[in-house]
Amino acid sequence: MTNLMFGIGGVWLVSILAGLPLFAAMGLAALAFVSLAGLSPSIVPQKMAQAMNSFPIVAAPLFILMGNLLSASRITDRIVRFATAITGSLRGGYAQASILSSLIFAGMAGSAVADAAGTGAVEIRAMKRAGYRAETAAAINASAATIGAIVPPSLPIVIFGVTS
Fold first, then answer.
1. What is the C-alpha to C-alpha distance for residues 135 and 10, in angstroms, rounded to an integer?
2. Is pLDDT larger for residue 15 or for residue 89?
3. What string of H, E and C letters represents the secondary structure of 33-75?
4. Does residue 156 have a cis peptide bond before it, meaning omega lies within 30 degrees of 0?
5. Closest by alpha carbon to 110, among 53, 59, 164, 160?
6. Segments making up each domain of the chain, as ranges
7. Which residue from 116, 109, 19, 22 is spatially nearest to 69, judged by alpha carbons?
8. Tens digits of per-residue pLDDT, 34-61?
9. pLDDT on residue 3
10. What is d(CA 112, CA 84) in angstroms, rounded to the nearest whole number?
11. Residues 128, 134: contact at Cβ < 8 Å?
12. Beta-carbon-side half-sphere exposure of residue 68 (alpha carbons within 13 Å)
């Protein structure tokens, strides 16, 4: 058992030191496990197909794709303009608009990181034009993006639902 662990770790370390990308080093380490453990090589494509059939594993890239599509199609600008139209006239309206647009975007993208990246640039630019300091605008955007983890359908809720 110890020889198997050292063999897998050695293949991984040599791959990393050789400059291979991380995914290739991990793949070679997995192949080393299959060959050193005496398993049939046909298990590799079976496990790959089984992993692609897993809903939580497929959900993460699809949420990232959705965030990129929303950003590329400039829908984030419309979301921010809508939120600003609703709350812009109130005291601290741009900060509230940032939170509201993060809430709307989180319902579509499902990820806090995608939320911060998708609406962040537009929100921070609008808040700086309204007189907010850049640090304050960035802090408001970062804290508003955390709502993405609790608004369904978010990635943490999908993973929690699958595990429970």
1. 45
2. 15
3. HHHHCCCCCCHHHHHHHHHHCCHHHHHHHHHHHHHHHHHHCCH
4. no
5. 59
6. 2-52, 56-159
7. 109
8. 988 888 888 888 887 887 777 777 777 8
9. 84
10. 20
11. yes
12. 6
Q: Which residue has the tokens 């975007």?
A: 105
**Mean pLDDT to the nearest integer, 65-70:** 80
Structure tokens at 26: 């991990």
12: three-class secondary structure by DSSP: helix
For the stretch 134-160, pLDDT in tens is 999 999 988 888 887 788 877 788 888
Query: Which residue reads 């079976």 in tokens?
Result: 46
State how far the alpha carbon of 24 is from the alpha carbons of 110, 115, 140, in Å. 29, 30, 39
What the block records as the tokens of 88 is 């812009």
Reported confidence tier of residue 74, pLDDT bands at 50, 70, 90: confident
Determine contact, residues 144/112, Cβ cutoff 8 Å. Answer: no
**Which pLDDT value is given to residue 18?**
94
- Nearest by Cα to 103 from 72, 143, 139, 74: 143
Residues in the chain: 164
